[in-house]
Specification:
Length: 368
């Protein structure tokens, strides 16, 4: 089964190129009519990002900015846009791909349109996503980071440059699991025997779960988040929830930064608010180490630093954490002045997490 129609981004290479040509045509028509060329996009500031109660994710507000050739700076931005449009159009047409880093270096041959930093080129690609409503993965633009992995009882069909291949993400992979591709929408789910998705923050905990056979015993589809999860990882989790009707639990450390990892899976991020409908899974639930667990299990801890305290206090005002549960846990953490890692559960034995902690937590939540 492919991505849901209402959730799927623009689609075929031809459709992607049509969107790019449409944008170029709009600029050309403005010039042909004697107008100063311009592009309007949502203002990409924190003040213009709001939490949408209905959808449960971050979205852009109504404020918009204009990129206009009326100034030298604005003209240079539109020139860069034209170069990037041309590059991506040819890339998609030829069936090739490139990394965001390569795009930055490629611009060295663009004269006045050369980027001064990769932050500039990355931001322009994001702007292009917004105005075209096409995700960069469909532009065939890849990030530099390695893909995260998944292991569990699901069979998939993946489109690769060598053709189609079918993979069972438990039987046909090693202990490292199946590596999530950059463009998850090339993956088709053929057979699913999983009961739920367990998204795990750290590699050490992911390895412990696999070594102890947690995926096999409980039908868990274990997804390694690798810290703050990549877009492809969040996209896969959303598709598994929407298309395979799998509940999603996020298992992290007990600190404010890990709570934000959960938040990015469940509600999206401010930086990628334009992609929340494709990446966020508002129904995801937190099954990570709770401040109350630190007290109940007397877990090994580290003291909170000043940045931790500031982050926790900010989360008390964050609409994503505006629930009685989160307020109670965050206030408790500030009171005890402690944080703990997932691996701290090993203080009660290497098998404690798979034999007691997760089965009890997930059982209480209705997953098991």
């Amino acid at each position: 089964m492919s991505a849901d129609a209402e959730d799927a981004p623009a689609g075929s290479d031809d459709e992607v190129m049509q969107e790019l040509v449409k944008l170029a045509d709009e600029l050309y028509e403005q010039i042909d009519d004697g107008e100063v060329p311009r592009v309007r996009i949502p203002t990409r500031t924190k003040n213009n990002v709001e939490y949408d109660d209905e959808s449960g994710v971050w979205v852009y507000g109504d404020s918009q900015s204009t990129r206009s050739a009326a100034s030298v700076s604005g003209a240079r931005k539109l020139l860069r846009l034209a170069y990037v449009l041309d590059f991506i159009h040819d890339q998609v047409d030829e069936g090739r791909s490139s990394t965001l880093r390569e795009l930055y270096y490629l611009s060295e041959g663009w004269g006045d349109a050369q980027f001064n930093s990769q932050d500039e080129s990355d931001r322009l690609v994001e702007d292009l996503e917004i105005v075209s409503d096409v995700r960069r993965e469909r532009f065939r633009m890849r990030p530099e980071e390695d893909g995260a992995t998944v292991i569990g009882p699901v069979r998939i069909r993946e489109q690769t440059r060598r053709g189609e291949r079918e993979i069972h993400c438990q039987e046909d992979v090693g202990e490292g699991g199946y590596q999530i591709p950059t463009d998850v929408d090339t993956v088709e789910f053929l057979q699913n025997d999983s009961e739920f998705v367990l998204a795990v923050e750290t590699g050490g905990m992911r390895d412990r779960l696999v070594e102890n056979g947690f995926d096999e015993e409980y039908g868990a589809l274990v997804v390694h988040l690798k810290g703050q999860p990549a877009r492809s990882t969040r996209r896969l989790i959303k598709r598994l929830h929407n298309e395979q009707d799998l509940p999603v639990a996020v298992f992290t450390d007990s600190d404010p930064w890990s709570y934000r990892i959960f938040g990015s899976v469940a509600y999206g991020s401010i930086k990628s608010a334009h992609l929340s409908k494709h990446l966020a899974t508002p129904e995801a639930e937190f099954v990570g180490i709770q401040p109350s667990d630190i007290v109940d299990y007397d877990l090994p801890t580290d003291p909170l630093g000043d940045s931790d305290i500031n982050a926790l206090e900010n989360e008390l005002d964050d609409p994503r954490f505006d629930t009685p549960y989160w307020k109670e846990q965050i206030e408790l953490q500030l009171d005890i002045d402690k944080k703990a890692e997932q691996q701290s559960l090993a203080s009660r034995g290497l098998d404690f997490v798979t034999e007691s902690y997760l089965p009890e937590r997930l059982g209480e939540m209705g997953y098991l």
